Amino acid sequence: MSARYQAVRGTRDILPEEIGRWHRLEAAARSTFERYGFREIRTPILETTELFARSVGGSTDIVRKEMFTLQAGDESVTMRPENTASVVRAFVEHNLHRTVGAGFPERLYYVGPMFRYERPQKGRQRQFHQIGAEVLGAPEPLCDAETIEMLWALLEGVGIRAKELRLNSVGDAACRGVFRDRLKAFLEPRLADLCEDCNRRYAENPLRVFDCKVEKDRAILESAPTVLDALCEGCATHFSEVRRRLDGYGIPYVVDARMVRGLDYYERTVFEVVSSGLGAQNALLGGGRYDGLVEELGGPRLPGFGFALGMERLLLVMPEEPGDRVATDVLLVGLGAPGFEASVSMARRLRAAGLSVTMPLAERPLGAQLKRADKLGARFAVFVGKDEIEKDRYGFKDLATGEQLELPEGAIAERVAAAKGTQR
Q1: Angle of the 173-187 helix axis to the 196-204 helix axis, nearest 10
Q2: What is the DSSP letter of 190?
């Protein structure tokens, strides 16, 4: 029978059978980030539209085409398409910059849904989920390298092996002014051969032409000048130091001089991590430095650096582990009316001891209960009947190995806890 209602196009349900992998990724991110001194922040899904138009950039595809914007009276609000702007807005609004000192920035991370109106495809949805981190108040190249090193540790920790770090510098405002003039001079005689979007980008923000996906245009752009050729001494030194630190961490990378990233607020370091397991659309995540954004959103002149990874994209290449399935520890099998009633009170005691316990809410045949245990992935079954109650000796079956024992109730929790400890 087909469902009368279905999820909105570009959204999807995350079912119980797959949620364990999401939990593992989130737990790994929290554990890794907190080892580096990051604290979690949670921002609203709705923000003023102006926040993203001002920070992300009016010439970007995100602002032009992809935002979900709601109009209520005179107020325009947008479902966040990314979270850096929201984190910086919260940083300024709540005066978190007051705790920032030389060498001691604010380190924040987040986990949550984002929304962009784009064509749904493998690993890309209109509602998607990101894990990200932001460092506010650190101009040092070590900040860039250490944050990338933290990210690399997370990817290694969840088993992502087929990956490549691509690195570039887009300079600062002065560098980009020089580069923009050189790029426009290169593009002007070739505009007739470039697509309509590239012509628009030429007029609005020439650096965006490097975002073009049209193969003919990309071939033309292969001979375009690069921003690395226009870096001032300060930006060149910063980029050189970032690379030196990454070399010291033993993190391999490729310099991609034509990578500019899709957001206008980036300065100096930008990077992406790509994976061969994703096909043509191979980007796993990206980020970079945004030294002018805090000031742009009303705060003091403080630098920033961060990244965001798409969870759906990462889960496509994250290997499965046996513990990914969220399973109950114990299924109580009530044998007859006395066994069912005894199971009700036993379930309460075992849960109080910290175990995950499932039992039917009405008397059921033995076969039906064991079938349910298999469906739930229960590790153990405990058989509770009249004889077991009288002896305080309950059938205790390891459903993974088939081993069966008789144990008093007091030993059940201890046995399950010991097995869980062995699994870890």
Answers
A1: 140
A2: G
